[in-house]
């Protein structure tokens, strides 16, 4: 069976998730399209890279991503670094002829994302953006029901992504709160996941009308080089740095199809852990999904008899999308890790078949355009065409 050598750039939280997927994918999807070989992991210095290699099962560690990307023995470059580095790494990897998967958002701005898209298209390599939540089997099932016309013509989409990990005003100043690194705050970090859902399930977004605001203007500067994701109490007496990105956003949507919708995203919603949801209403029914209950999809079909009409719960299992590679019993349990395993499977299946996967860098570019429009709409307090 074909093997493919992976260079993973970044050994933090997302690196752990990706490394786990490379190890587990052939266990779940057998025969695998190819066997990922964890060849080299790159981190900010050699000591951290060596530690990451040991921890994540890579053959070696390196502190020089440029040298690694240029190596002839690397087939796939996996970008798990802060947003301000995505473009430089991806463009170099494309020029070196490597297939690429990049964490989301693809870039800080649409302009950066377009440069990345141009590079991969010129190189003819496979490219993917890691919007892994769409690979939750219940979400893929929602797409299947929509494609089959089970809920008719979609008229409305409502999506949310609410978290509370940064609600503490004394939590550390992660790079996620700094515009020059992140590009935006809640909009890019978690809002783009809901934008991906909206495009995947409903279609292209034509215009947005947004309200964005920063709730906590300063945070304690964190010590050391390891990003703490803004989680945990900081020193209230420590030096504080400026937060120059959004903490929450609410935006109306107008789809090219004529449907309307809304997205609400916040990282300051006390009591919400990973509240990623969507509700879709069509002319023949409705679909409801909550990622915190990710094994279940709520569906309602308007043509049901009146005495049983209402939402029903479908628990995903072997009969549903990706079910052949997961667990044989419905509701046995799908986690964040499984979405990354499925993502890995789709990536390597695309590489071996030569067919671009979705979401590609083209999708990532389009989502960056929408994120830029949400920011501009918040500033102008008006509808912005995408």
Provide the fold topology.
Blueprint: E1 3-9, H1 13-28, E2 35-42, H2 46-56, E3 60-62, H3 65-69, E4 76-79, H4 86-95, E5 99-102, H5 110-123, E6 127-129, H6 137-147, E7 154-162, H7 179-182, H8 186-201, E8 205-213, E9 218-220, E10 240-242, E11 248-255, E12 260-266, E13 275-282, E14 285-290, E15 296-301, E16 312-315, H9 336-353, H10 361-380, E17 384-385
Parallel strand pairs: 1-2, 1-4, 2-3, 4-5, 5-6, 7-12
Antiparallel strand pairs: 7-13, 8-11, 8-17, 9-10, 11-12, 13-14, 14-15, 15-16
Helix pairs in contact: 1-9, 4-5, 5-10, 8-10
Question: If you had to describe this structure to a student in words, what would you say it looks like?
Answer:
With 386 residues, this protein is α/β, with parallel strands linked by helices. It folds into 2 domains: 3-132, Rossmann fold (3-Layer(aba) Sandwich); 135-385, Dihydrodipicolinate Reductase, domain 2, CATH 3.30.360. 32% of the residues lie in helices and 24% in strands. It has 10 helices and 17 strands. The protein has helices spanning 13-28, 46-56, 65-69, 86-95, 110-123, 137-147, 179-182, 186-201, 336-353, 361-380; strands spanning 3-9, 35-42, 60-62, 76-79, 99-102, 127-129, 154-162, 205-213, 218-220, 240-242, 248-255, 260-266, 275-282, 285-290, 296-301, 312-315, 384-385. The strands form 3 sheets. Strands 16-15-14-13-7-12-11-8-17 form a 9-stranded mixed beta sheet. Strand 14 and strand 15 form a beta hairpin. The longest helix is centred in the C-terminal third of the chain and has 20 residues, at 361-380. It starts with a strand and ends with a strand.
């Amino acid at each position: 069976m074909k093997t493919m050598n992976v260079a993973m750039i970044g050994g933090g939280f997302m690196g752990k998730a990706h490394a786990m997927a490379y190890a587990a994918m052939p266990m779940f999807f057998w025969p695998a399209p190819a066997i990922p070989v964890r060849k080299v992991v790159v981190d900010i210095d050699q000591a951290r890279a060596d530690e990451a290699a040991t921890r994540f099962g890579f053959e070696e560690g390196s502190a020089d991503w440029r040298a690694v990307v240029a190596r002839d023995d690397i087939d796939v470059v996996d970008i798990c670094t802060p947003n301000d580095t995505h473009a430089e790494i991806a463009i170099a990897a494309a020029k070196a002829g490597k297939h690429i998967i990049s964490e989301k958002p693809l870039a800080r701005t649409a302009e950066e994302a377009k440069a990345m898209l141009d590079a991969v298209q010129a190189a003819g390599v496979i490219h993917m953006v890691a919007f892994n939540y769409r690979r939750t089997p219940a979400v893929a099932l929602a797409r299947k029901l929509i494609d089959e016309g089970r809920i008719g013509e979609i008229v409305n989409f409502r999506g949310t992504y609410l978290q509370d990990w940064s609600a503490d005003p004394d939590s550390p100043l992660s790079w996620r709160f700094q515009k020059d690194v992140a590009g935006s705050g809640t909009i890019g970090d978690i809002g783009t996941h809901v934008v991906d859902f909206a495009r995947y399930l409903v279609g292209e977004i034509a215009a947005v009308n947004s309200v964005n605001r920063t709730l906590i203007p300063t945070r304690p500067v964190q010590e050391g080089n390891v990003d703490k994701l803004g989680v945990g109490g900081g020193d209230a007496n420590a030096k504080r740095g400026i937060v120059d990105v959004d903490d929450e956003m609410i935006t109306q949507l107008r789809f090219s199809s004529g449907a309307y919708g809304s997205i609400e995203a916040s990282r300051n919603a006390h009591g919400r852990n990973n509240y990623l949801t969507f509700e879709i209403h069509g002319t023949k029914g409705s679909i409801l999904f909550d990622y915190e209950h990710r094994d279940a999809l709520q569906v309602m079909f308007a043509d049901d008899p009146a005495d049983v009409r209402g939402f029903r719960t479908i628990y995903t299992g072997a009969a549903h999308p990706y079910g052949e590679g997961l667990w044989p019993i419905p509701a046995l349990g799908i986690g964040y890790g499984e979405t990354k395993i499925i993502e890995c499977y789709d990536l390597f299946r695309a590489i071996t078949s030569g067919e671009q996967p979705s979401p590609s860098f083209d999708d990532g570019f389009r989502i960056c355009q929408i994120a830029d429009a949400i920011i501009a709409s918040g500033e102008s307090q008006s509808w912005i065409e995408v």
